[in-house]
């Protein structure tokens, strides 16, 4: 699981090497190929964010650097130069770091101060409580690049046109387009804004013309061409800055070889409630609350904690390596040391991990003259204070520095809601999926659960108002807008009508009757 978590980690805007590692971080970064490495020895002549130029045996070699490229996970890939002008370099030396490497070592996360304790129920069930410092100081801020593409085809009615002249659209929707109808570089784009203006020709009946078009046609005999607006718009939830636009025109464009326009938008994302974080021991969790710094628990020297994890997530999963990492990270942070320890080092002697951690904590306590770092009564733990009241917590708490990653599962990509929207043509039920503004599925087992609780009214609205009862959902929408009581659904939902039609195709006629609650008279209803 830990390997999967590191595979899903997002490169941060400011990466940091881990205090406690395995020693394989450098080799992993080297094998990934994201770093620029000197193939010959020489001297640096010039360096900037785009290239590094050095001389070697009279030859001048230029190495281009990657700048703001999009990865397959929509993250931002770039290279940072590590050498300065005038310095001599050796063969195999690292010239530039990648987005997730520092000094040639893999750097996917941040070393943050963590505590293992319950806090008002906000970290139950693997939830994580974090400090607002991680937001305001851009500790877990990442950049993401999304690609949006549109094609201009040649239809049977004529070619589609990329243009800014789109009728019946408000001016503020076209404010970011240039004269060609393509969004300008550097524009700030919000959800619903037009990225590329496009018109698709279509034939129209006389009745579909606008009144002014019919007048022009009747008086002057001008044939007004009709076109459907099929522009590329930024979907819901998207926002950011346009960093690149590519217009790919191929010779002899046809329906099989259309021209394409790609728009790349960069987005800055701070950590927020709903994002997923994880350590390197499979200890993953969702951010449940962001607390102000003064309310976070704080150490005896006044340092507020950055993250609060649930201690119940450790014993049942038996990943106690995170406790060793946490304590050793605290010692390394105070002593300004980095540790590279192979996993499963108990083969050297019994309790080797515990002895190493306690000895380093003892050294840190002596050098910093902070007795709370290592207390013999409860080594690795410390008495800490409640930030809201200033009182000591009843029990000593496990504190330390852990290497925590921000994962690609982010709330901006997953949050979704629907009041009303599109429905499937045959079943008249809401569509599924976030991309189609769909609803949440109430399946067979969910219905069983509701039936087990006997919630008749919730069941009725799940299977009628919120699903495929056409008349009832229209009445609900009207009552919501105007006000008033929502009437009970009287006739059958569309799924029952569909069943009746299918039975008719098998030459079976099914009659259904409505029994009134008041007089119990049977009234026949046509499906």
From TrEMBL:
**Its GO biological process terms?**
DNA-templated transcription
Report domain RNA polymerase Rpb2 positions. 438-513
- Top-rank lineage group of the source organism: Eukaryota
Q: What is its EC number?
A: 2.7.7.6
Q: What Gene3D superfamilies does the annotation carry?
A: 2.40.50.100, DNA-directed RNA polymerase, subunit 2, domain 6, RNA polymerase alpha subunit dimerisation domain
Q: Domain DNA-directed RNA polymerase subunit 2 hybrid-binding, which positions?
A: 37-436
> Which cellular components does GO assign to this protein?
DNA-directed RNA polymerase complex
**TM spans, by residue?**
none
InterPro entries for this protein? DNA-dir_RNA_pol_su2, DNA-dir_RNAP_su2_dom, DNA-dir_RNAP_su2_hyb_sf, RNA_pol_bsu_CS, RNA_pol_Rpb2_7
- Pfam families attached here? RNA_pol_Rpb2_6 (PF00562), RNA_pol_Rpb2_7 (PF04560)
Q: Which UniProt keywords apply?
A: DNA-directed RNA polymerase, Nucleotidyltransferase, Transcription, Transferase
Q: Which GO terms describe its molecular function?
A: DNA binding; DNA-directed RNA polymerase activity; ribonucleoside binding
Q: Which PANTHER family match?
A: DNA-DIRECTED RNA POLYMERASE I SUBUNIT 2
The family classification in the record reads: Belongs to the RNA polymerase beta chain family.
- Name of the featured protein: DNA-directed RNA polymerase
Highest classification ranks of the organism: Eukaryota, Viridiplantae, Streptophyta, Embryophyta, Tracheophyta
């Amino acid at each position: 699981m830990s390997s999967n978590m590191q595979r899903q980690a997002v490169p941060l805007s400011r990466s940091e090497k881990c205090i406690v590692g395995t020693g394989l971080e450098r080799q992993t970064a080297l094998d990934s190929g994201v770093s620029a490495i000197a193939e010959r020895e020489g001297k640096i002549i010039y360096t900037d964010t785009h290239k590094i130029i050095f001389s070697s045996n009279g030859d001048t070699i230029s190495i281009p650097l990657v700048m703001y490229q999009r990865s397959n996970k929509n993250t931002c890939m770039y290279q940072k130069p590590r050498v300065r002008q005038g310095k001599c370099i050796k063969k195999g030396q690292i010239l530039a770091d990648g987005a997730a490497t520092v000094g040639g070592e893999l750097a996917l996360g941040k070393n943050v101060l963590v505590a293992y304790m319950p806090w008002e129920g906000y970290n139950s069930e693997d939830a994580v409580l974090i400090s607002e410092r991680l937001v305001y100081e851009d500790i877990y801020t990442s950049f993401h690049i999304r690609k949006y593409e549109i094609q201009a085809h040649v239809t049977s009615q004529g070619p589609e046109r990329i243009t800014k002249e789109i009728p019946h659209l408000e001016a503020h929707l076209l404010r970011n387009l240039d004269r060609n109808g393509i969004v300008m570089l550097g524009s700030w784009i919000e959800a619903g804004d037009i990225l590329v203006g496009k018109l698709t020709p279509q034939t129209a009946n006389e009745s579909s013309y606008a009144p002014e078009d019919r007048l022009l046609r009747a008086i002057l005999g001008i044939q007004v061409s009709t076109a459907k607006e099929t522009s590329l718009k930024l979907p819901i939830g998207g926002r950011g800055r346009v960093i690149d636009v590519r217009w790919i025109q191929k010779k002899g464009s046809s329906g099989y070889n259309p021209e394409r326009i790609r728009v790349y938008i960069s987005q800055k994302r701070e950590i927020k409630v709903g994002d997923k974080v994880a350590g390197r021991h499979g200890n993953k969790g969702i951010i449940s609350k962001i607390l102000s710094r003064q309310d976070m628990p704080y150490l005896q020297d006044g340092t507020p904690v950055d993250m609060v994890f649930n201690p119940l997530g450790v014993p049942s999963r038996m990943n106690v390596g995170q406790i060793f990492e946490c304590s050793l990270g605290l010692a390394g942070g105070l002593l300004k040391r980095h540790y590279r320890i192979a996993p499963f080092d108990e083969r050297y002697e019994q309790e080797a991990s515990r002895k190493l951690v306690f000895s380093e904590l003892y050294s840190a306590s002596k050098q910093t003259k902070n007795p709370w770092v290592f207390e013999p009564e409860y080594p690795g733990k410390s008495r800490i204070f409640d930030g809201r009241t200033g009182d000591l917590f009843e029990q000593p708490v496990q504190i330390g520095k852990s290497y925590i990653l921000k994962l690609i599962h982010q709330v901006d990509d997953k949050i979704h809601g629907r009041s009303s929207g599109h429905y499937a043509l045959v079943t008249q039920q809401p569509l599924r999926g976030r991309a189609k503004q769909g609803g949440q599925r109430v399946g067979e087992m969910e219905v069983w659960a509701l039936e087990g609780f006997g919630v008749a009214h919730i069941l009725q609205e799940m299977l009628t108002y919120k699903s495929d009862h056409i008349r009832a959902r229209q009445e609900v929408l009207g009552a919501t807008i105007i006000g008033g009581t929502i009437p009970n659904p009287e006739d059958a939902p569309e799924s029952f009508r569909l069943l009746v039609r299918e039975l008719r195709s098998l030459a079976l006629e099914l009659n259904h009757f409505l029994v009134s609650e008041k007089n119990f008279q049977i009234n026949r209803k046509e499906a």
